[in-house]
Amino acid sequence: MATIALVAPEEERARAHALVRALFGPSDAAADRSVDVLGAHAAALAWIREAVGSYPTPLPIATRLEQVAADLRGPGDDRDPALTLGHAALDALTAYRAGS
Amino acid sequence: MTGYVLDDLALAAGLGAASSEHHRRELSRLISGAIDGGPTLDLPALCLAEANTARSAIGTHMAELIAHAPEGTIAIGPLARTNRLDALRDLKPRLPWPALHAADRAVATGSFLVTTDPRRYDGIPTGIVTL
After folding, report:
1. For residue A24, what are the contacts with CB-CB under 8 A and spacing of at least 6?
2. SS3 of B62, please?
């Protein structure tokens, strides 16, 4: 009878990480920062969606958040991404409502 | 958060022949995060096919990766005729098929669409973030 070799989940996970390193190389501080900003950007968009009630994100708000996210990725910008994008979302929403 | 859909531009930026080291490392972090229980990743099949034309064997590498990653963390998304797809085509008739597929997957799953060109998706009812 044929047997199925079961591999422990941790071993599979380690293999997956080894494949990622082989294909892409390891992450670094700049990439970690970019992905943190990406996550904070997504959270800010989700908050806007809750506040506005639907997608798409109003264009002035979307472009403002993209600009702030780009600034946060710049060298020397060590502001907290979640806090900064959260404030930017609130400001952009306030401006959008005042103008519409 | 549900996860991210990577469009053809994001995949090519990190995996294509002319990919940048920074974008490659960003993808490394996103995929590692998914493996470790972070936001899931959806790779629309047409986006992967498009990236595969820029650098052959990408599809094979990603299949190998999916086969070792925990179930449900990284997946290749299908394309099917739905009312949603028809509506997106009507909304953005000039959007190339890989981008339309990415938009369809993002709307269908409630995931955020990751791209290097957010203006491409103006008007699409989903969250768009920039790689």
Report:
1. B14, B15, B24, B25, B27, B28, B31
2. helix
Q: What is the dihedral of CA B119, B109, A57, B116, to 10 degrees?
A: -20
Q: Is the pLDDT of residue B77 over 60?
A: yes
The pLDDT-based confidence of A7 (bands split at 50, 70, 90) is: low
Tokens 């394309």, located at residue: B79
Start-to-end C-alpha separation, chain B? 17
Scanning A11-40 for CB atoms below 8 A from B yields: 12-13, 15-17, 19-21, 23-28, 30-32, 34-35, 38-39
Please give the order of strands across the beta sheet that includes B3-6.
B74-77, B40-44, B3-6, B112-115, B128-130
Does the distance separating the beta carbons of A15 and B130 come in below 8 Å?
Answer: no
Dist. CA A61–CA A96, nearest whole Å:
7
Smallest CA–CA distance, residue B26 to chain A, in Å, is 5
pTM confidence score: 0.92
Among B30, B68, B127, whose Cβ lies nearest the Cβ of A35?
Answer: B30
Rounded CA-CA distance A69/B95 in Å is: 25
Q: Which residue has the tokens 């009630």?
A: A53
A84: three-class secondary structure by DSSP: helix
